Task: structure prediction
Amino acid sequence: MNDPRVTADLLAAWALDAVEPAERALVEHAISADPALAREARALRETVAALAAQDAVPAPEHVRAAVLRAVATEPQQDSGPVDERPPIDLAAASRRHGRGWRIARWAAAAAVVAAIAVPTGIAVQESRQAEARATGRAP
Result:
C-alpha cells in the first residue's frame, strides 16, 4: 500500500462499509492510485459479498439446547428502570475516544472479516478435497 494512512484494517472496514465519509474518500483515492491496492480491495468486497450470499446454517440441536440451558440458569442482573439512567452524550464520548475508537472499530471490522473468511476458506478447501476424492483425482 502506497498511502501509509490506508492500513489493512481501514481497507477491511471500507469493504464492510464501516467507515466515515472522510475515511471512505481516503481509501477510494488510494485505490484509484494503486493497482495492487485496488485488487486487494476488490477481493475483500467480493469476499464480503460471497459471505453475505451464504445461507445461514442452523446450529445442531444439541448445541442449541446447551445454549438455552445455559441462558436459563445464568443469573440475571437487574439494570434498573431505564428512566433513572442519565442520557449518554454520544458527541462527547466520540470526542473523548477519538482516534482510539476508530482504530478499535477498524480492528473489529477486520476481525469480523477474518472470522468469516477463514472458516469459509476452510470449508471451500474441504469441499474441493472431497470432490476430488469422489472423482478419483488426488487432492
Observations:
- DSSP finds five helices and no strands in the chain.
